Every structure is written in structure tokens, then in C-alpha cells.
């Protein structure tokens, strides 16, 4: 087991929006964050993205999954081998299917392969043991969010919102001693965030995203579709709770008859409303919501949120953090926690029965 004391760990995340791999160095002892280091990004090209997309919703054993895993491993090896100083790697992989109370959760990419290529220990498969112990296996960033709240000197409860393919919220109380302390964190997925609008732009216009939320800004949200969406039982379910990228495909189907701009406006407003519903589960109100993930670049989504929430809504850059790299940094931090035998999730972040340290460690040459 890793001894106490800070090390530079390299985290890597390939998120549900399928844009590419983010990587970032963090100096941490698995409790405190002492510094942030170099970052990098390796986009998937069109062919790679199409092959990963073809594996979504499939499980190990399917040829599409093997193909996706190879792409994920190669992209990570290319990106991570450019970093020098890491003593440990945290490799999330690419979620292809997530069904925690059914077939489980699967992130493509084998950490043992990466450990060989990189010549350093790799922590990976972060979600399976949480699911095996009755948890959702997601979200896992909350313990890192707690450490971030401490690092920025927060003393009152605040929330982090990640707007990736799916959205997730973490409420944290930084006055508690650690993320595993009772009452320190509450976390859950809010609903679809960028994934539906990306899928719309891809199918209607051959684009990857609604840059700046400009198309959505030029349309009118369909109130009936949003009301139907918000009637989904997911929003009333008590957290912790998590989602698969494709759990809300019905929303995308519902906007099919609308013109492009109205469809984009509807999907964007739905993402914002899902977050608002999420905040209703907070144990206490927060004064600020710090937004990370690519959706913070979507001005329409950010305006929709600010107009509907009683607190300050600001990108994490407002407190000196990097919203494009936060999740990669999270997996660097979590890797050190795994290596030190510290928990990475608990009953209030994933609904797991007890505190659990997810992840297996692969060493090179073994
Ligand atoms: N300038 C922009 N304007 C609008 N949307 C943007 C912009 N930049 C990024 N995005 C959105 O953010 C997405 C990428 O976000 P991010 O990298 O946080 O997602 P992810 O990490 O793949 O997802 P997850 O957190 O669900 O795993 C893009 O696919 C796009 O939808
Ligand atoms: C199963 C899975 O990969 N979930 C992702 C996804 O993307 C956002 C949201 O859904 C969150 O639950 C999670 O990722 C972040 C990094 C997390 O685990 O905190």
C-alpha cells in the first residue's frame, strides 16, 4: 500500500460526450490537493468516435466492445506517454454501458495494458466494486469535490455541477473533517446534459455540438415536451441515483417533429430544468453552484440555470479551477486514495452499503 505523503498522480477521463481523452497531473496525498500540474487532451477522430458509439449499450464479449477498448487504450497510451513525472495513473476508461442494478457497469480499456505501456502502476475499474456492494457506481467525483471545496477555502455548503454528456451534482459541506464524514457530501446524476443536444446537432447538421448554445438561443423551448420530461419518475427518486447516457432517449425522440432551433432550445431547457429539480434534493440551500464540464461553455444553458436558481451560478474558473480538466484531476486524486486504501465512495454519494475503495491496481511487469 502507498505510504502517506503527496505524489504526482496522472488522471485520465474519457467522458460520455465521446469527444476525447482529458489528462491532468495532481499533487495529492489522497486527502488534500496540494497542487495542479500539466494537462493534455487527445480528441477521438471521426472514425474512432463512430466505433466507440457503435459499442454504446453493449457489454464485454461483444466485438464492438473489444474494438472500442482497443481505441480507448491506444488513445490513452498516446496521450499519457507524453507526461513525465507521474508516480501513479488513474485511468477511468470509457463508459459503454451503465446499469448498476442490472448488468452492472462497464468502462472500456484495460489498465494492465496501460501499466505495461507506461511503466507505472495504473488504478482502473473504479466503479465495479461500488456496484457489487449495492451502489450506483457513479458519480465518483464527489470526494474530489469535497477536497476542492477545502482547497478553495470554502467554509459553507456549496455545490459542484458537472455538465458533461450527463449532468451530476455534488452538495458538499466543507466544515466536515473529510469527504467520508457523515453529512459531508450528497451526490447524484441530474439528468441528460449535453448528450441529447450533441446527438441532435450530429443527426440534423453533422456538427458535434451546439457551440455557445447559439442554435438553442434562436429557438423556443416546447413547454409540453419539457413537462412530460419532468414527469419522469427519475426526478422524484431520492438520491443517490445515476444514469446511463441513453436513459433519456425518449426526450430526443420527442423533439423529432420540431424545427432544429426549437428542438435545441427544448433539449437545453430540459437539461437546465433537470438540474433545478436536482437542487431540490439538497440537504440545505447553497449560496453558490460552481459549474464544470463542457456545458459551462453553453451560454444558453448557463443563462437558463442562472434564471432558475436562487444561488450564484458560476464556472469553476471563478475560483481558479480548470473546468475542462476537473474530472481527469478527480481520477488522479481517486487513484491515490485507492493506492492508500482510502474510500472513494459512500452511502451518500453512490448509495453503496458502506464506504468503499473502488478500483484495481495493475503494476507493470506483473
Ligand atoms: N463551446 C461550447 N459550446 C457549447 N457546448 C460545448 C462547448 N464546449 C463543450 N461543449 C459541450 O460539452 C461537451 C464536452 O463536455 P465534457 O468534456 O465535460 O463531457 P464528458 O467529460 O465527455 O462527459 P461526462 O462528464 O458526462 O463524462 C461537448 O460534447 C459539448 O456538448
Ligand atoms: C457511469 C458513468 O460513467 N457516469 C459518468 C457520467 O458522466 C457524468 C455522470 O454520468 C457521472 O455519473 C459519471 O462521471 C463522473 C466523472 C463521476 O463519476 O463523477
Automatic annotation (TrEMBL):
<dbReference type="GO" id="GO:0016773">
    <property type="term" value="F:phosphotransferase activity, alcohol group as acceptor"/>
</dbReference>
<dbReference type="GO" id="GO:0097175">
    <property type="term" value="P:1,6-anhydro-N-acetyl-beta-muramic acid catabolic process"/>
</dbReference>
<keyword id="KW-0119">Carbohydrate metabolism</keyword>
<dbReference type="GO" id="GO:0016301">
    <property type="term" value="F:kinase activity"/>
</dbReference>
<dbReference type="GO" id="GO:0009254">
    <property type="term" value="P:peptidoglycan turnover"/>
</dbReference>
<dbReference type="GO" id="GO:0006040">
    <property type="term" value="P:amino sugar metabolic process"/>
</dbReference>
<protein>
    <recommendedName>
        <fullName>Anhydro-N-acetylmuramic acid kinase</fullName>
        <ecNumber>2.7.1.170</ecNumber>
    </recommendedName>
</protein>
<keyword id="KW-0808">Transferase</keyword>
<comment type="function">
    <text>Catalyzes the specific phosphorylation of 1,6-anhydro-N-acetylmuramic acid (anhMurNAc) with the simultaneous cleavage of the 1,6-anhydro ring, generating MurNAc-6-P. Is required for the utilization of anhMurNAc either imported from the medium or derived from its own cell wall murein, and thus plays a role in cell wall recycling.</text>
</comment>
<comment type="similarity">
    <text>Belongs to the anhydro-N-acetylmuramic acid kinase family.</text>
</comment>
<dbReference type="Pfam" id="PF03702">
    <property type="entry name" value="AnmK"/>
</dbReference>
<feature type="binding site">
    <location>
        <begin position="15"/>
        <end position="22"/>
    </location>
    <ligand>
        <name>ATP</name>
    </ligand>
</feature>
<keyword id="KW-0418">Kinase</keyword>
<keyword id="KW-0547">Nucleotide-binding</keyword>
<dbReference type="GO" id="GO:0005524">
    <property type="term" value="F:ATP binding"/>
</dbReference>
<keyword id="KW-0067">ATP-binding</keyword>
<dbReference type="InterPro" id="IPR043129">
    <property type="entry name" value="ATPase_NBD"/>
</dbReference>
<comment type="pathway">
    <text>Cell wall biogenesis; peptidoglycan recycling.</text>
</comment>
<comment type="pathway">
    <text>Amino-sugar metabolism; 1,6-anhydro-N-acetylmuramate degradation.</text>
</comment>
<dbReference type="InterPro" id="IPR005338">
    <property type="entry name" value="Anhydro_N_Ac-Mur_kinase"/>
</dbReference>
Amino acid at each position: 500500500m502507498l505510504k502517506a505523503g503527496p505524489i504526482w498522480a496522472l488522471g485520465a477521463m474519457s467522458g460520455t460526450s465521446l469527444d476525447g481523452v482529458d489528462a491532468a497531473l495532481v499533487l495529492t496525498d489522497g486527502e488534500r490537493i496540494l497542487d495542479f500540474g500539466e494537462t493534455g487532451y487527445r480528441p477521438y477522430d471521426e472514425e474512432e468516435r463512430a466505433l466507440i458509439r457503435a459499442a454504446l449499450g453493449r457489454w464485454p464479449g461483444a466485438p464492438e466492445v473489444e474494438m472500442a477498448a482497443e481505441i480507448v487504450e491506444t488513445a490513452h497510451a498516446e496521450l499519457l506517454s507524453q507526461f513525465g513525472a507521474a508516480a501513479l495513473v488513474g485511468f477511468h476508461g470509457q463508459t459503454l454501458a451503465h446499469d448498476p442494478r442490472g448488468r452492472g457497469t462497464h468502462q472500456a480499456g484495460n489498465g494492465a495494458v496501460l501499466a505495461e505501456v507506461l511503466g507505472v502502476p495504473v488504478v482502473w475499474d473504479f466503479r465495479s466494486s461500488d456496484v457489487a456492494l449495492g451502489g450506483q457506481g457513479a458519480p465518483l467525483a464527489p470526494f474530489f469535490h469535497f477536497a476542492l471545496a477545502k482547497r478553495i477555502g470554502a467554509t459553507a455548503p456549496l455545490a459542484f455541477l458537472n455538465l458533461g454528456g450527463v449532468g451530476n451534482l455534488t452538495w458538499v459541506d466543507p466544515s466536515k473533517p473529510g469527504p467520508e464524514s457523515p453529512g459531508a457530501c450528497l451526490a447524484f446524476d441530474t439528468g441528460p446534459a449535453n448528450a441529447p443536444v450533441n446527438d441532435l446537432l450530429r443527426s440534423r447538421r453533422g456538427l458535434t455540438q451546439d457551440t455557445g448554445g447559439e442554435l438553442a438561443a434562436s429557438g423556443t423551448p416546447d413547454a409540453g415536451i419539457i413537462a412530460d420530461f419532468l414527469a419522469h419518475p427519475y426526478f422524484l427518486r431520492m438520491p443517490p441515483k445515476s444514469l446511463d447516457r441513453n436513459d433519456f432517449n425518449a426526450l430526443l425522440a420527442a423533439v423529432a417533429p420540431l424545427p432544429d432551433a426549437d428542438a435545441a432550445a427544448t433539449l437545453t431547457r430540459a437539461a437546465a430544468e433537470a438540474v433545478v429539480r436536482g437542487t431540490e434534493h439538497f440537504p440545505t440551500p447553497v449560496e453558490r453552484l460552481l459549474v464544470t464540464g463542457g456545458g459551462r461553455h453553453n451560454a444558453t444553458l448557463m443563462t437558463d440555470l442562472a434564471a432558475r436558481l436562487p444561488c450564484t451560478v458560476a464556472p469553476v474558473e471563478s475560483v481558479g479551477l480548470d473546468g475542462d480538466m476537473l474530472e481527469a484531476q478527480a481520477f488522479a486524486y481517486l487513484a491515490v486514495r485507492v493506492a492508500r486504501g482510502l474510500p472513494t465512495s459512500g452511502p451518500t454519494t453512490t448509495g453503496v452499503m458502506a464506504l468503499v475503495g473502488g478500483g484495481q491496481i495493475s503494476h507493470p511487469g506483473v
